[in-house]
Design a protein that fits this description.
membrane; transmembrane helix; transmembrane; about 60 residues
């Protein structure tokens, strides 16, 4: 159950980051938009790697 909660939270964070990136892109702040996109991808990858590490170690 906790695993699905982590997946949902990471999805929400990524969607909010992508939305913010879109807003920044439309306002003309292209570098801020790209940085926000990379931030959202980094957050997703860290969470996925943590989940995989926990699964491999057998805690779930």
């Amino acid at each position: 159950m906790a695993e699905w909660f982590i997946y949902i939270v990471s999805l929400v964070i990524s969607l909010l980051s992508v939305w913010e990136s879109r807003v920044l892109w439309k306002s003309g702040n292209k570098s801020g938009s790209v940085a926000t996109c990379f931030l959202s991808l980094s957050i997703i990858m860290i969470i996925v790697l943590l989940i995989l590490e926990v699964k491999i170690s057998g805690l779930f």
